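Lipoprotein
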Amino acid sequence: MRIQYVLLVIFLTFLVGCESQDYNAEQDVFQTKEAAIKHFLDEFPRSDIEHVKTTDDDELFIVRSGNHQYDVYGMENEHNRYSIVKLTATLSLHNTIAGSAEFHTPMGNDYTYLVVKQNNHDKLPHDTRTKFEMSPILSGDAELSLNQGHIGVKSQSIMPTNVIKSTETIVSQGI
């Protein structure tokens, strides 16, 4: 009897591990975009958040926390159920003036973003300054370039396509 119990526990543990990953138990899902955004803002009460809408209709959230640490989150809509999911690792600009990363959105789009600290755009290499179109974010405390596709800063000689449709700095009380 004891062996059967142990085998049952092992089998159930294995079965749970093989479960479909379509739903993440840690991911909160909501009936409306507004509810998902409100919950997201409540999760980051002391962070600066920029809501970015792209020309491809992606909704992104650039979160700045701590000493110039940036994360990108995206709105996910599956069967009219909304959640906001993390799309990038944390990008730390603690000891530098700028940084970039690539990511893939829930809508299937690939982007590269470049963040520059306030008043440091002129310190970037000439090629970077002239190649990337920058938009002020976080009430002017930083600048953002958001481009279509995976673009290495030194990989192209042509100007990448900027996909920022609109940006807005939001706070918990703003929604």
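thats it. The chain has one domain: 48-174. DSSP finds three helices and ten strands in the chain. bye
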